[in-house]
């Protein structure tokens, strides 16, 4: 009898379900998008109930399309959009409001009120993160302060709060399991990554009750079992949970110190495995947990960008410069090489390494001959430039001159963009043939926990290599122009 792993990747734009066979190959995939709630203030929300219903639907469809018997699914892994904050009723499982999405900066009011130099230093030392509305803590605090039902439930000790993994696990197990994993906990800004526990002093600063938070477990724990509301005849073990970027790091096989990956999604996460000793991150780079397995934590250096793949979506859906995502590559190839138009996509502020939620997007450097092709190329350039900002700082932090950047995610299909990335960082870029590395990563981790996969499973996927080709003088001119554009924006 064949055995299969089910990987569920709950991401910003939608939810995916993938089946992996005993060799680690993708057998079938289904996905469904969910609505993005964006108001006039730029606040971004998701309906967690819709996401749960989509999860049930896509797994059911996946099994029907694949022809795989539900009885042959031996384990489940969950990866999820990180930092997105959800609050729900412990008795019913129903969300008290829309989830506050990681892109949303509405928690800035909380940071302004409680932020002091002393708290900033405390938070950075214990969580590895700068005090910022980007992370879950301010979002959860905002919900408590602005959603009456949340406060009422908290007063009765009936409120659950956490990231999307904890919510999905809660629903999948019928409320029996209220847990998260170490990687997701480390991104909340409430978790002490030295003691590997929720930090009481920081919880008090944000006004978040400890009993409303999930139990933080090893990433390859047996989190619970589920029939997915009767889809499986016997409960299937959920044996891995990771934030999507951490899952991609695992799926890329970046198990050793210094190995680095970049996930190109709605936003982007650049991660470098920092080993088992907690490093001190500086200059806009944060420290988080890669994962915790076998009771041992692995750390990462990381930089997060709000808008990368979302820039292409914006060019397609909002300003209609392109009709499809793939069209952006053709436009870039046809653009005037001499044009120096820059797009800085700070639609909801800038993430790493600047952490400026108060600035707004800008286009500069246009000439009379700047047209659609040049504008589209500027959008793709913005993706490569933002990632270069982080890679440059990581190499300085690690004391290395060059490295291999392992890349994954939908935008990696754009060959022009991947070559541009190699040219801008001056590094070899290795693009995995498995586009959905987050789902693969949690499936590989769950499969290893269940004895289905060995440590080499991540190395079996094919990949494409992009080597830097650009003249150093041209690179310095292009990247220098980007740095000037960002500098101009930061003066706003």
Protein described:
The strands form seven sheets. A seven-stranded mixed beta sheet has the order 18-19-17-16-22-23-24. Strands 3-2-1-6-15-14 form a six-stranded mixed beta sheet, with helices on both faces. The chain is 35% helix and 24% strand. With 492 residues, the chain is α+β, with helices and mostly antiparallel strands. The longest helix is centred in the last third of the chain and has 27 residues, at 372-398. The N and C termini lie far apart (63 Å). Strand 4 and strand 5 (44-46) form a beta hairpin. It has a domain at 4-244: ATPase, nucleotide binding domain (Nucleotidyltransferase, domain 5, 2-Layer Sandwich), CATH 3.30.420.
Brief descriptors of the model:
six-stranded mixed sheet; Nucleotidyltransferase, domain 5; alpha+beta; 35% helix; seven-stranded mixed sheet; 24 strands; 492 residues; 15 helices
List the helices and strands and how they pair.
Elements: E1 4-10, E2 14-20, E3 26-33, E4 37-38, E5 44-46, H1 48-66, E6 73-80, E7 86-89, E8 99-100, H2 108-114, H3 117-127, H4 136-146, H5 148-155, E9 159-162, H6 164-172, E10 179-181, H7 182-185, E11 191-192, E12 197-198, H8 200-206, E13 215-217, E14 224-226, E15 236-243, H9 244-251, E16 260-264, E17 268-275, E18 286-293, E19 296-305, H10 309-317, H11 327-334, E20 342-344, E21 362-364, H12 372-398, E22 404-408, H13 415-425, E23 428-432, H14 437-449, E24 463-466, H15 472-490
Parallel strand pairs: 1-6, 6-15, 10-13, 16-22, 22-23
Antiparallel strand pairs: 1-2, 2-3, 4-5, 5-8, 7-9, 11-12, 14-15, 16-17, 17-19, 18-19, 20-21, 23-24
Helix pairs in contact: 2-4, 4-5, 9-14, 10-12, 11-12, 12-13
């Amino acid at each position: 009898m064949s055995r299969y792993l089910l990987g569920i990747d709950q991401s910003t734009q939608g939810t995916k379900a993938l089946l992996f066979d005993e060799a680690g190959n993708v057998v079938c995939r289904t996905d469904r998008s969910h609505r993005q709630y964006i108001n006039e203030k730029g606040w971004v929300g998701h309906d967690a109930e819709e996401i749960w219903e989509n999860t049930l639907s896509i797994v059911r469809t996946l099994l029907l399309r694949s022809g795989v018997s539900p009885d042959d699914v031996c384990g489940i892994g969950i990866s999820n959009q990180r930092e997105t904050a959800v609050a729900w009723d412990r008795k019913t499982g129903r969300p008290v409001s829309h989830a506050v999405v990681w892109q949303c900066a509405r928690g800035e009011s909380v940071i302004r009120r409680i932020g002091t130099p002393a708290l900033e230093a405390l938070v950075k030392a214990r969580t590895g993160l700068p005090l910022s509305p980007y992370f879950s803590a301010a979002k959860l605090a905002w919900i408590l302060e602005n959603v009456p039902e949340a406060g009422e439930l908290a007063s009765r000790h009936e409120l659950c709060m956490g990231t999307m993994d904890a919510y999905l696990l809660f629903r999948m197990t019928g409320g029996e399991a209220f847990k998260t994993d170490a990687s997701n906990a480390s991104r909340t800004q409430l978790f002490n990554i030295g003691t590997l526990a929720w930090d009481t002093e920081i919880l008090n600063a944000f006004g978040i009750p400890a009993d409303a938070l999930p139990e933080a477990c090893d990433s390859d724990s047996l989190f619970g079992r589920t029939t997915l509301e009767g889809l499986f005849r016997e409960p299937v073990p959920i044996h891995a949970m990771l934030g999507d970027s951490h899952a991609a790091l695992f799926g890329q096989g970046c198990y050793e110190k210094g190995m680095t990956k970049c996930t190109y999604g709605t936003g982007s996460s650049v991660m470098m495995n920092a080993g088992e000793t907690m490093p001190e991150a500086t200059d806009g780079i944060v420290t988080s947990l890669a994962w915790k397995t076998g009771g041992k934590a692995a750390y990462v250096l990381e930089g997060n960008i709000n808008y990368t793949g979302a820039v292409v979506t914006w060019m397609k859906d909002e300003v209609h410069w392109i009709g499809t995502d793939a069209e952006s590559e053709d436009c870039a190839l046809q653009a005037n090489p001499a044009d120096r138009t820059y797009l800085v996509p700070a639609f909801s502020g800038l993430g790493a390494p600047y952490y400026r939620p108060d600035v707004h997007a800008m286009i500069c450097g246009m000439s009379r001959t700047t047209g659609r092709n040049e504008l589209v190329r500027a959008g793709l350039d913005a993706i490569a430039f933002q990632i270069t900002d982080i890679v440059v700082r990581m190499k300085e932090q690690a004391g290395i001159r060059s490295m291999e950047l392992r890349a994954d995610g939908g935008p990696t299909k754009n060959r022009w963009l991947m070559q541009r990335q190699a040219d801008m960082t001056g590094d070899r870029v290795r693009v995995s043939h498995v586009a959905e590395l987050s789902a693969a990563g949690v499936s590989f981790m769950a499969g290893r926990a269940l004895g289905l996969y060995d440590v080499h499973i991540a190395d079996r996927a094919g990949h494409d290599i992009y080597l830097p080709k650009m003249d150093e003088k041209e690179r310095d001119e292009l990247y220098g122009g980007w740095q000037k554009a960002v500098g101009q924006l930061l003066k706003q």
